Fold this protein.
Amino acid sequence: METVNAVGRRKTAIARVFLKEGNGNIIVNKKSLEEYFPLTTLRYVVKQPLELLGVTGQYDINVNVCGGGFNGQAEALRLGIARALVKVNAEDKPKLKAAGFMTRDPREVERKKPGRPGARKRFQFSKR
């Protein structure tokens, strides 16, 4: 099997996923998954599509991720892995879609407006 690549995005994070047959190594920006994501919850989010399909130890995953924070990067990585798994085996798509791993989360940060302290916040009103 040749290398399969896919892209996952979330907020401002972009994850490029390269998936090939192997023994379950996940490398993120030339570091191990445990080294890059020290929180167990983020590692759990990344491995969700693999555990759902039961293919945790079958593929080596190499990832280049940039932008955003840790949470956005982990969720972008989850989407990228799910897309790559569908490229390998299209029959897995209904399972992943039912779990919500195939949809890109469209929520972005609203821009700051001029003359205001934030996107929606106003300066304190003073009548006198």
Remarks:
- The chain has one domain: 4-99.
- The radius of gyration is 18 Å.
- The longest strand covers residues 13-21.
- Strands lie at 4-10, 13-21, 26-28, 31-32, 59-66.
